[in-house]
Design a protein that fits this description.
The complex is a heterodimer. By secondary structure, chain A is of the alpha+beta class. Chain A is built from 2 helices and 7 strands; from the N terminus they run αβββββαββ. A 4-stranded antiparallel β-sheet of chain A has the order 2-1-7-6. Chain A has a 3-stranded antiparallel β-sheet with strand order 3-4-5. By secondary structure, chain B is mainly α. In chain B, α1 runs antiparallel to α2, α2 runs antiparallel to α3 and α2 crosses α6. The chains are: A alpha+beta, B mainly alpha.
Chain lengths: 120, 200
């Protein structure tokens, strides 16, 4: 191996390493969740910042939790608890709805080409 | 793998008349043609043998046939290497049964990129077989990936595979380069055609 070859090899390894760090950043799309009550956007939550948020709805308070780039409804007034049972959502375009309380949480960003929607 | 032919250099083409009065143009292969055919056959054999090897991921294969391509580049020049690389893909595709299939197209895109990269890399002063093989391997992978992404799977998440694929390309490119270097050391000095150099 000549000295030039060794230099090329080093350059190639550095290039690949930088590609890893460039292309393997967590997420990509859908890093924010838009929360609306009765059709009006009340807040936008950054999914990279963990924490709990209380949203005032028509019946009472819906509590949201953000962790590890995901969001879920922890507690919400409503007979069937559908949005709580939805669990964590994280992909761009995914949403969960607490209909009795009129609270809608959707993750923004262009959805990938994979799925048009999800149903449970 | 000693390469010996008689140095006759006959006229390139000769016209001969056969009974019906039809005139056939007989093409006599010259030294370069024979050399390219023989080496391409070797590369094809390696290419076909390699298709049996299971791959951890589509797009990753050792690419041992490229040892021949780089060896040819050093010994007989870029034109011969380009011929061997392209013939390998076409004949290999015909033999394995993937001719004109997506697999073949990806292979061809890779080979064309690698040949182009070698065309540039050979001018880099001080470059050896390892560097040549490394650059060719990375170019092969990039060309193949680009075609796959643009044409076959235009998925926004596909670039996440690129670092993994390039890691394999660097590893195998380097390994093949070392094999090439030792092959070149073992070959007789008189194998090299004095009329040819990789800077041609």
């Amino acid at each position: 191996m000549t000295r030039v070859d060794a230099g090329l090899l080093l350059g190639a390894i550095l290039l690949v390493a930088s590609l890893y760090s460039l292309l393997w950043q967590p997420g990509g799309a859908g890093r924010e969740a838009r929360v609306s009550v009765g059709g009006e956007v009340v807040t936008t939550l950054n999914l990279d910042r963990d924490g709990e948020h209380a949203i005032a709805g028509h019946l009472g308070t819906t509590r949201l939790q953000v962790a590890d780039g995901r969001i879920r409804v922890v507690e919400s007034p409503g007979a069937r608890q559908l949005c709580v049972r939805d669990g964590w959502i994280e992909g761009a375009g995914e949403s969960t709805v607490c209909l009795p309380n009129r609270v809608v949480v959707e993750i923004t960003g262009r959805p990938g080409h994979g799925l048009d929607g999800k149903t449970y | 793998m000693a390469w010996t032919e008689k140095r006759t250099d006959p006229p390139l083409a000769r016209e001969s008349t056969i009974d019906g009065g039809h005139v056939y143009r007989e093409i006599t292969p010259d030294r370069d043609d024979l050399r390219i055919a023989g080496l391409a056959a070797l590369a094809v054999a390696i290419h076909v043998a390699e298709t049996v090897v299971p791959s951890p991921m589509p797009g990753i294969r050792p690419g041992l046939a490229n040892i021949i391509v780089v060896t040819v580049l050093v010994l007989f020049g870029w034109r011969a290497a380009a011929w061997v690389a392209i013939l390998r893909v076409v004949a290999g595709g015909l033999l394995v049964g993937t001719f004109l299939s997506p697999t073949f197209m990806l292979s061809l895109a890779g080979a064309v990129s690698a040949v182009a990269a070698l065309g540039v890399a050979r001018w880099l002063p001080g470059i050896g077989p390892v560097g040549l093989s490394l650059l060719a391997s990375m170019a092969h992978m990039s060309g193949q990936f680009l075609l796959a992404w643009l044409w076959l799977v235009p998925h926004p998440a596909l670039p996440m595979l690129l670092p993994v694929l390039l890691t394999a390309a660097v590893a195998f490119g380097c390994l093949n380069g070392m094999i090439t270097a030792s092959l070149l050391r073992r070959l007789n000095q008189d194998t090299r055609d004095p009329r040819r150099s990789m800077h041609e």
